[in-house]
Write a structure and sequence with these properties.
Elements (H helix, E strand, L loop, with lengths): L1 E7 L2 E5 L8 H6 L3 E6 L2 E7 L5 H11 L6 E6 L3 E6 L2 H11 L11 E5 L7 H7 L9 E4 L9 E4 L4 H6 L1 H6 L6 H5 L1 H13 L3 E9 L7 E13 L5 E10 L4 H4 L4
Parallel strand pairs: 4-5
Antiparallel strand pairs: 1-2, 1-3, 3-4, 5-6, 7-10, 8-9, 8-12, 10-11, 11-12
Length: 254
């Protein structure tokens, strides 16, 4: 049986279903936290910049009563989503996140390069097997005015999962110049062209940043050069989503 509660400071009001279909209104306009419980699992949602500390304390007290898994939705210039095996880990994360309350996240994209030795075996297997092309994106590298235009999207790629099969089927992959020419995003592409070696990193990106309800996504990315039969160099891109968005900023919960 589901139970839904809005937390306003120390006060909690329970309902059989959510009162709002819009995330912005309860969390950023009213500064509420919400707690949804279903059997032994629960979901906590709040806007870090607007929720009062008393509401966080109340929410953590309620969380401590649960023994099952916890999902945390936290808004900080976009929604972060994390899943934890138990309430102790979730409460630890909430307490860590409070430190971000007055800290601005720079930009919409951040990445941390990894060493070649850290490339997972799965990534290497996909990279070296043409049969797995459906998991890849391919970028052109010769159109300097438009940065690195996207020329193909694999049906099982992370972008296909985000944008949907209808978008992939249309075959129009023009994301605009800002998406493929932004130096913070394409720095890795330039590195691959300069060295002709694979580039592996961990990235955090804010999806649809102009949307009033954007989402942060954390993923691993492997980029490598591919030479076509006509001699043109293209860039293959493999991305795998990770569940824990705030790990990038705060570190993993042990």
């Amino acid at each position: 049986m589901k139970d839904f509660a809005y937390i306003d400071g120390k006060h909690l009001t329970r309902f059989s279903k959510p009162l709002f279909s819009d995330n912005d209104l309860p969390y950023r306009t009213f500064g509420l936290a919400s707690l949804e419980t279903a059997d032994e699992s629960c979901t906590l949602r709040f806007d870090l910049e607007h929720v009062p500390e008393e509401a966080i304390e109340t929410a953590c007290t309620l969380l401590a009563e649960h023994r099952g898994p916890v999902k945390l939705h936290l808004f900080k210039q976009g929604w972060f989503t994390e899943r934890f095996e138990n309430s102790v880990m979730a409460i630890d994360r909430v307490e860590q996140a409070i430190a971000l309350k007055n800290v601005a996240i720079p930009g919409c994209f951040m990445s941390l390069r990894k060493t070649p030795e850290q490339i997972p075996g799965l990534f290497s297997a996909i990279k070296n097997n043409p049969c797995h092309a459906s998991h890849l994106l391919t970028f052109a590298s010769t159109d300097h005015e438009r940065g690195f235009p996207l020329v193909s999207v694999g049906a099982h790629s992370l972008m296909a999962d985000i944008m949907g099969p209808e978008w992939v089927a249309r075959g129009d992959f023009d994301l605009g110049p800002n998406a493929t020419a932004d130096r913070t995003v394409t720095r890795a592409y330039h590195d691959v062209l300069d060295t002709m070696d694979a580039y592996y990193d961990e990235a955090l990106v804010r999806l649809m940043p102009s949307d009033p309800e954007p989402n942060w996504m954390r993923y691993h990315r492997l980029i490598w050069p591919v030479r076509r039969a006509d001699g043109e160099i293209q860039l293959a891109n493999l991305c795998v989503k990770l569940d824990h968005g705030l790990d990038y900023l705060l570190g993993p919960i042990q």
